[in-house]
Design a protein that fits this description.
By secondary structure, this protein is α+β, with helices and mostly antiparallel strands. It has helices spanning 2-11, 13-17, 23-34, 76-90, 101-104, 122-126, 158-172, 176-185, 228-240, 246-252, 326-334, 340-345, 355-365, 370-379, 386-398, 402-415, 420-432, 436-449, 454-463, and strands at residues 38-45, 48-55, 71-74, 224-226, 257-258, 273-275, 280-284, 287-296, 299-305, 312-318, 478-482, 485-495, 498-503, 509-516, 519-521, 528-533, 539-544, 549-552. It holds the Pfam family Beta-lactamase.
């Protein structure tokens, strides 16, 4: 009998973890565990739709999310665009298998000397088998790279969607926004959705438009602005086959390609993920599911839908590693299952069934004896990975809970004593606690295990310089703009012994530590931030990764 109870606790962790809690309370707990500012989620089952709004749109805001709050949807816009493409296909405007260059003759982003580009079809674009590389730098003037012969493999490509967008704009003689309003937004009453950011929008959450990307906007691949209410209208219309011929809906939901990503190592999730026309397909305990994710800056979104039961869930949030909550939400709303999509993306936890248990145990028992908490969970069959432990440590670091992060990274070091990353993270937490010597020693241990760890070398350099103290950082703070674009700016603030850089266009933040008199470093991006002084000796300009100057506003 004990074994049966034990197995049930593994298979249905939600029963014990969330007993006596309402879904809004559960969402608040999930957000707190992941250190996310808020969430907008809509769930439909048995014809009933429920909206859940919790927290704020992004860090630093005070206005609570409501059902009308607009988010950047990123790649969720690809699914909406694919639906519009198939509506035009139903009316004979284009064929799925006619090479797209036949419709427009040439395309400036392709190499006219390479005949392979002339093989690309709408079906290939929508199933990510076109061979086109993902978006390149847009000011290089170089042709878009073909990774493989069109139709011969799978590689996710927003570039392909942009190409198909240009084809449709020429075929219909309509810009993207007009086309999408006529084919999708107005028929489905998606009144808050658009691919074009306009002046009347509340930008407190989404931020101002990035003018540096003006040449590639609006873009079917990533500029959709919407909310969970509107997107759920789209999902339910899609599941009902509204606006599509039955055979076309079936085609959209059927396998067009496997998802064994070209150039990526094969994984177990590949066996459960395929691609339809504009949609990800997942097979698990619940049967065949539709799914997709969105990611742009710090904005993340995800939907999962069951074409048989018409059940669907979609959510929008903002924050570092936000999609790690997806497995939990799928279990809570859609029923316990393996969300292979997250394994395939690599954006979830390796052991999502373990992490909520860990959070709950630490809430109840505290961080004074972390090894005991881990050992208790392991004795019950729960598994850990270094990646999961490290990710949780950084969630705590972001909350400035350095003592708790220190305990988690110390456990990581104990479990993975030959890991350079473990010692590097432990050093960061030590630094956060003000233990400079322990931080230096740990960075040196990390460097000894991995001599290519540039960040550790920079950290040691910064920590060993007695002049690099937190009280001397204020001279680097302020607002920095481009000469020709005053509405695009960087905001630099000093926190502890770090410079926090916030981008005006999306609110994304980067943390830099000092490595030289006028030079700082960001570990995650490996970006350098450097400064120049004017003739009076005052900080005058900032440079991030390149020679483009950001001028300090006096």
């Amino acid at each position: 009998m004990k074994r049966i109870v034990f197995l049930l606790s593994i298979l249905f962790p939600c029963i014990e973890l969330y007993a006596q809690k309402t879904r809004p309370q559960i969402l608040q707990q999930v957000l707190a565990d992941a250190n996310l500012p808020g969430i907008q989620l809509v769930y439909t089952a048995n014809g009933k739709t429920t909206a859940y709004n919790a927290g704020v749109g992004k860090e630093g805001l005070t206005q609570i999310i409501n059902s009308k709050t607009i988010f950047r949807a990123g790649s969720l816009g690809k699914c909406v665009f694919a639906y519009a493409v198939l509506r035009l296909y139903d009316r004979g405007v284009l064929s799925l298998d006619t090479p797209l260059l036949r419709y427009i003759g040439s395309y400036k982003r392709f190499d006219a000397k390479d005949p392979r580009y002339s093989m690309i079809t709408a079906r290939m674009v929508l199933s990510h088998t076109s061979g086109l590389a993902e978006f390149q730098e847009f000011d290089t003037g170089e042709p878009v790279k073909l990774l493989f012969a069109p139709g011969s493999s799978f590689s996710y490509s927003g570039e392909g969607y942009w190409f198909l967008q240009k084809v449709l704009e020429k075929l219909t003689n309509k810009p993207l926004e007009q086309l999408m309003q006529e084919e999708v937004f107005k028929p489905l009453r998606m009144q808050s959705s658009t691919y074009v950011q306009n002046q009347g929008m509340d930008i407190s959450v989404i931020g101002p438009e990035n003018k540096d990307l003006a040449d590639m906007m609006p873009n079917a691949a990533f500029t959709l602005l919407t909310n969970a209410h509107d997107y759920n209208l789209f999902l339910q219309a899609l599941l009902a086959g509204k606006g599509l011929k039955p055979a076309t809906q079936k085609l959209m939901f059927s396998k067009q390609s496997n998802a064994q990503w070209f150039g990526h190592p094969a994984g177990k999730a590949d066996d459960y993920i395929n691609w339809g026309l504009g949609l990800g397909l997942q097979y698990n305990q619940k049967g065949n599911m539709l799914w997709h994710w969105g990611s742009t800056g710090d904005f993340y979104s995800f939907f999962i839908a069951n074409p048989v039961s018409k059940q669907s869930m979609v959510f929008f949030t903002c924050g570092t590693s936000a999609l790690k909550i997806t497995d939990q939400l799928a279990d809570i709303f859609m029923g316990k299952q393996t969300t292979w999509a997250m394994r395939w993306l690599g954006l979830g936890y390796d052991h999502p069934e373990t992490m909520p248990r860990l959070y709950n145990a630490l809430r109840q028992q505290g961080f004074n004896n972390v090894p005991l908490v881990f050992n208790n969970l392991k004795s019950k069959g729960y598994q850990f990975s270094e990646r999961d432990i490290n990710a949780y440590g950084y969630v705590l670091m972001k909350q400035m809970l350095y003592k708790q992060a220190f305990a988690i990274f110390k456990q990581q070091v104990a479990m993975y004593p030959q890991s350079a990353n473990a010692y590097d993270s432990f050093a960061e937490a030590s630094e956060g606690l003000g233990n400079k010597q322990l931080a230096i020693n740990s960075y040196k241990r990390s460097l000894g295990l991995d001599t290519t760890n540039v960040a550790a070398r920079y950290h040691i350099k910064g920590l060993e310089n007695p002049a690099f103290t937190a009280d001397k950082l204020n001279v680097f703070t302020g607002k920095f703009t481009k000469l020709d674009k005053a509405d695009v700016f960087l905001k630099l603030e000093a926190k502890r012994n770090r410079i926090i850089l916030t981008q005006s266009w999306d609110g994304n933040k980067l943390e830099f530590f000092r490595i030289g008199d006028l030079e700082f470093y960001n570990t995650d991006t490996q970006f350098k931030l450097r400064f120049e002084k004017d003739t009076s000796g005052a900080i005058d300009k900032a440079f991030v990764t390149n020679n483009v100057a950001w001028i300090k506003v006096k």
